[in-house]
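Quick start: read one record
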Amino acid sequence: MAARGARRLLGSLWIALLLGQPDPAGAAARSSSQSPAGSTVRTFTPFYFLVEPVDTLSVRGAFIILNCSAYCEPSPKIEWKKDGTFLNLVSDDRRQLLPNGSLLINSVVHSKHNKPDEGYYQCVATVESLGTIVSRTAKLTVAGLPRFTSQPESTSVYRGNSVILNCEVNADLVPFVRWEQDRQPLFLDDRVFTLPSGALIISNVTDGDGGLYRCVIESGGSPKYSDEAELKILPDPEVPLNLVFLRQPSSLTKVTGQSAVFPCVTAGFPTPVVRWMKNEEELTIEGSEKFLLLAGGSLEISDITEDDAGTYACIVDNGNETIEAQADLTVQAPPEFLKQPDNIYAHESMDIVFECEVTGKPTPTVKWIKNGDMVIPSDYFKIVKEHNLQVLGLVKSDEGFYQCIAENDVGNAQAGAQLIILEHDVAIPTLPPTSLTSATTDHLAPATTGPLPSAPRDVVASLVSTRFIKLTWRTPASDPHGDNLTYTVFYTKEGINRERVENTSRPGEMQVTIQNLMPETVYVFRVVAQNKHGPGESSVPLKVATQPEVQLPGPAPNIRAYANSPTSITVTWDTPLSGNGEIQNYKLYYMEKGTDNEQDVDVGGHSYTINGLKKYTEYSFRVVAYNKHGPGVSTQDVVVQTLSDVPSAAPQNLSLEVRNSKSIMIHWQLPPAGTHNGLITGYKIRYRKASRKSEVTESIGGTQLFQLIEGLERGTEYSFRVAALTSNGTGPATDWISAETFESDLDETHVPEVPSSLHVRPLVTSIVVSWTPPENQNIVVRGYAIGYGIGSPHAQTIKVDYKQRYYTIENLDPSSHYVITLKAFNNVGEGIPLYESAVTRPHTDTSEVDLFVINAPYTPVPDPSPMMPPVGVQASILSHDTIRITWADNSLPKNQKITDARYYTVRWKTNIPANTKYKTANTTTLSYLVTSLKPNTLYEFSVMVTKGRRSSTWSMTAHGTTFELVPTSPPKDVTVVSKEGKPRTIIVNWQPPSEANGKITGYIIYYSTDVNAEIHDWVIEPVVGNRLTHQIQELTLDTPYYFKIQARNSKGMGPMSEAVQFRTPKADSSDKMPNDQALGSSGKGSRPLDIGPDYKPPMSGSNSPHGSPTSPLDSNMLLVIIVSVGVITIVIVVIVAVFCTRRTTSHQKKKRAACKSVNGSHKYKGNSKDVKPPDLWIHHERLELKPIDKSPDPNPIMTDTPIPRNSQDITPVDNSMDSNIHQRRNSYRGHESEDSMSTLAGRRGMRPKMMMPFDSQPPQQSVRNTPSTDTMPASSSQTCCADHQEPESATASYLANAQEEDSGQSLPTAHVRPSHPLKSFAVPAVPPTGSTYDPALPSTPLLTQQASNHPVHSVKTASIGTLGRTRPPMPVVAPSAPDVQETTRMLEDSESNYEPDELTKEMAHLEGLMKDLNAITTA
């Protein structure tokens, strides 16, 4: 070692000379931090806590400092965690970070429902580029409100005896308790002292001890005083008095270093002598520094150690008799380190072990922290020998600070060490510590400059077993002899980037055996040669698979588990029968039943006790034996439950309901889940009068969540509290709550009197009956009996609750005379009936006139003045499904005590969905607990009060939103599709869960190729926010994948969806995109028209869809047709203008009314074809739409195709609608591309649109198809308001609903009274020959359902374009028209309103024009 150090020093000096350093001595001094090659060796950085926070007790309103200080160069950054979460101290106005790293909390906040400062605090120190360390955890406890559980009572005592004055408070308030005598502070000594509970003991009483005593709690704010108790001193008795214990010692549990007091206070005469024994041996007290006998006989033990644990007995003797009492002292010890982890230098791929030995009572649990984060055990991070941390195959990211955290019930402690990973060319500065395993001991020599060896040759696995592989190789080509070469073997599991390393044992050796491998596992090996200049090239990686395991131990027989306590279980087993060699150790696996978090512990023997388990919880256990080959066969799981204990929490939501003057009903809910600690066998109810010194009465009930307490006094306030019971005892009780019984009860010795009024309101098949209670409110009413029948009230009888004031009698006959009777009843019988009669309305009567009363035998009493409604209604949210409603009643006295028979009705509802009905409940107190609500839902509440016949209006509403809950349903409608052009990328779509129970903050997508794999083996893709789609890339082609999705909100994760399977494509298909896909997408929100593979253009001579030219002959024909259409249109315009001017004034009014019913004049580009119009086309300018009243089809189809004369005839649209119109156009482009459409638009100018409004009701009305006839026009259009007398009706067109059919709004329809025979004419569309249309499909305007067997309906329309230019056909999808017979009936219905002379003249004029037009076109 000395020679090696000298060589390093000389090397450093030589390098210093070469570099021209002026200070060789300085270089020598720094040799410990530099390698001989000149590479820097980093030294360990001192980084530790100077001060750590400690457990602290505070009071409300005080300020607290949790000390923390860490040392490091450079100075560390200090942060704080509370309950495992970092505190944001920048925006916190009460908590701030002091310059030394301590945490200051100003004005501690603490209340019953808000405890933001109480909890566990931890200091976190971070140095950038170095690491992070965490301190021990400190508990901050805030003392509760000052409250006495028992108070001193007046008593008398004989002179020379002892006396106890009780003053019991909560344990956290004991340090703030002091005593006063005659309202002056009482000074304590060894004769007058207090017990840990706060009680005062006075021994050897003298006359001066008499007076008034009281105890005081000073916990911040004004002090709280107990009742005063008078202590009287009596003279010595003249006769002996029997010995009696005033306070016996009780068993204690203390922590080392604390003090303990065993009280032993007796009374008797003569004065007794007290002595103590420990474990049945006399305790020597005189001269002892540990034990002190207080006046009166109590024993104080100071500075407790574990040796002080045992059984202590107090023996009292006064010469006449002897009495004895004993108690146990249990001593606990916080964790203490026997061995702390050491700093470690290492190279990558090495294996290291951090050692950590701790002691404590109970046995501490150990966890490891790396740079502030928990180390989770895995294949490369293992807990060995119960406490040590082993890291296998180091990588650079493993560098940092590791801390061993030891915890038990009474404390925690931490110790840390630093890991530095050096470069491979840097030697470890010191001898390898014991923390390095022998397999990775490095023998690097000082490196010099020179040639490095090439890669070793012919690396082969000469021996392959289940747990080891032997590798051999040849020397590198650069050094055939290789006597001075050493070799390093790097190996890893296939697919893992964490390499491990094994070195040859001596220079020149060309084989190595790799141990501790897993059977049936593929490993990758490579070998690197090293000479005096350093490591050379690596060999080609070699893959080798280990053999299957055959020599493994069998399962351990007779595995048994039994519970020792509520938190510990012992497991035992025997040696396996088929050991297959010596058993080295066992691994015990255990986990809580119903979870998947399995833990394990190494055990050397055949039994083990696991502590720190949950109470009354089932755990499963299994054992695996290990021999030299590895783990054997696991045993079967055994399940055992920890023992039960008393509940650790009180019942929830205690409420009282005053029933009458002598009974009160109590309701409560179960203690919180996880705090039962056993099977709840019942509940203990304690109640007392609210006066201070009243006796407490106990009542033990069953497992029901309510109890009726009877036999109470009238007009008396009582306080109640409830505690849950298990077989082990009683748990904590609720706080006291109070209620006052009524002053007087109602009379039930007589039947009720007649109700004061009865009103009936008949409808068609029901009658609403309402009434008011009897005037005499002093007789009990249990309910009301309603009798009714046709002509007699005795046919049917219905009984309703006494709180009800109305009832609806259903299922009656229309136009029938019913007699109704109403009687109040109680337990004595039914009272005098009140009669009414009413006649139900006929079927045709839909009016809502109010009802009449026939032959009322009693005059209804006018309604009394209403009561004042409750005020101050408040909603307090208690949980995700419970809200407490409280209010005040201004008609009550100031103390808000209810002394009469009034009751309150609470109603509540939520506005989602909008038609939710109110729910109501009645109560006799000023609060009500509303349960069974939905999570994360806003509710509104209101209250009314009823007293006799008087009721108030509903109060002002209060609102409350229930707390969130984890999602209770998985995401729905999960679909997976392949991304177009990228077969390795898929798109996952889904919908939010139906029961999100809160705002969704993200999703987690799990996917795997094995649907049966454990969920932790699935690949996870997180999705942040509420997005409903996600892309997953780089998947394997032609592979089935399974996908599951889980939703997350602020409360946690919801359930997973069912697995959805998807197989990726076999190869790239970007160059094989189907034509229908390439042509189909037209824009955002559009749906491509699926025209089917057999689609043929309707005209053989028309242009191709992309506008390619056709033959000259076809062009000439199209030119002739276009000219013809233009001339016809001009003629029609002239005729319409002439005709409209000749209309009468009544016709003009009717047309203006029709125009005003049309909503808007939006213009869209339609798809039409240049075909020759049929003969009836000349009438289209005069058609108008109206609802077909007499059509049996409930959804008549009407079309609207206004044809402007040129582009100037189109009414401009304001800019606010441009974007909307442009977006809607994309839905009508068919299978043309966007570029071709824009080109066509520029060539054609503004094209007319084809609009097809549909009645939106019913939405699923099917469309019927009729055979085509030559006499039917293909579409219809209307020209409205030709005289232009109404500006807003200049262009009367309908808004197409192709993109708005989901809005649920009714589309505008024209409602025009028939004034012309053609105005009632609905023109059916002509379907193509041989086309079929499924009548079961829903009607969708302009767009067909996508299906290959439903070709596009080609519709012939006429349009005006530029003369001399051809246009490609643009297919338009139109629904079918009504039946022919319906159309004929429409024409017939309107004939009576037509003037035959006018029609004859116009038709003759049109025939002449047509003849002239035919002559022109023929020429």
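The mean pLDDT is 74.
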